[in-house]
TrEMBL record:
Residues 267-280 have a biased composition (Basic and acidic residues). Residues 267-289 are annotated as: Disordered. It comes from the Bacteria. This is DUF2989 domain-containing protein. Pfam families: DUF2989.
């Protein structure tokens, strides 16, 4: 019992240290977690991530779907990396090449077994994995139902569903993108979500919204833009463009500060369709959803 506790306690210290030392210590105390992996320094980051995730699963009595999903991802990445490394012939130590080939073969088998054991799972993370990686339509249905029932709070999963809805339900895609903007700060923000909002708005006939979200993306990424094409969204209305540019600055600031959720601009974007803008500002071209 003392040994087990020491290993677990030590892990909390080591997770903050150098990754190689971290994984080396785990392997030393838990050799069964590493014996199927290759021995040399190729793919060390990918191998380290996999080792640490295996240790988390070992020391977690009832692993969550997210933890198993992470295991699938790390195993995928490791397998792809060692596949490439196995094609590099070592002229002096041939056994190193053979060791990588062995590790690649085992990783493929392990991945297939884990995929099979999680097939049909009702967990949103595992359903997302089987839909996105293996094109499983039933898993997509599980994911959609979980979102509708409010059982998904991870911005990554919600943003992936938003991409799906861009082709089938632009209004729902817009809602999900606004949801995820309220869940993150600058560190976890994907500026492409704003482009998704721009696409959804354009599909809904809200060209002002499309301009606004596109401009906010530009503010965050400093990407170059064709201003003539941007202005064309507003039928050349420079006064409206100036107003929306200011709003885009507010939106970008709220998002990167992590204060978008519950903010005045969030409420305005959720409740104020383009038709309402036209009523309050007659100079703007009339648009509707």
């Amino acid at each position: 019992m003392f040994t087990s506790f020491a290993v677990v306690a030590g892990s909390f210290v080591l997770f903050g240290c150098d990754n190689d030392r971290n994984s080396d210590m785990i392997c030393k105390n838990n050799p069964e977690l590493c014996e199927d992996l290759h021995k040399d320094s190729w793919c060390r980051y990918e191998k380290g991530d996999l080792i640490r995730q295996r240790f988390i699963l070992k020391t977690t009595p009832d692993p969550t779907g997210k933890q198993i999903y992470d295991q699938l991802r790390f195993l995928e990445v490791y397998s792809k990396c060692i596949e490439l490394a196995s094609g590099v012939q070592h002229k002096v130590n041939v056994q190193r090449t053979n060791d990588r080939l062995r590790a690649f073969g085992v990783s493929v088998q392990n991945l297939e077994e884990l995929q099979e054991s999680t097939k049909g799972s009702q967990d949103p993370y595992l359903a997302y994995y089987h839909w996105s990686r293996l094109d499983d339509a039933k898993s997509l249905s599980v994911l959609i139902n979980a979102e509708k029932e409010g059982r998904i709070s991870d911005p990554e999963l919600l943003s992936k569903l938003a991409i799906y809805y861009l082709k089938t339900d632009a209004a729902r895609a817009k809602k999900l993108y606004l949801d995820v903007l309220g869940m993150v700060d600058e560190k976890h923000l994907d500026p492409d979500w704003l482009l998704g909002l721009a696409t959804a708005s354009r599909t809904l006939g809200d060209l002002e919204g499309s301009y606004l979200y596109s401009r906010a993306n530009i503010v965050l990424t400093s990407q170059s833009v064709n201003e003539a094409q941007m202005l064309a969204l507003l039928a050349g209305d420079k006064t409206k463009a100036e107003s929306l540019d200011s709003e885009a600055e507010q939106l970008a600031k709220a998002v990167i500060s992590g204060n978008f959720a519950g903010s005045a601009i969030e409420k305005r974007l959720r409740s104020e369709p383009a038709t309402e803008r036209a009523k309050t500002e007659p100079v703007a071209p009339s648009t509707s959803h």
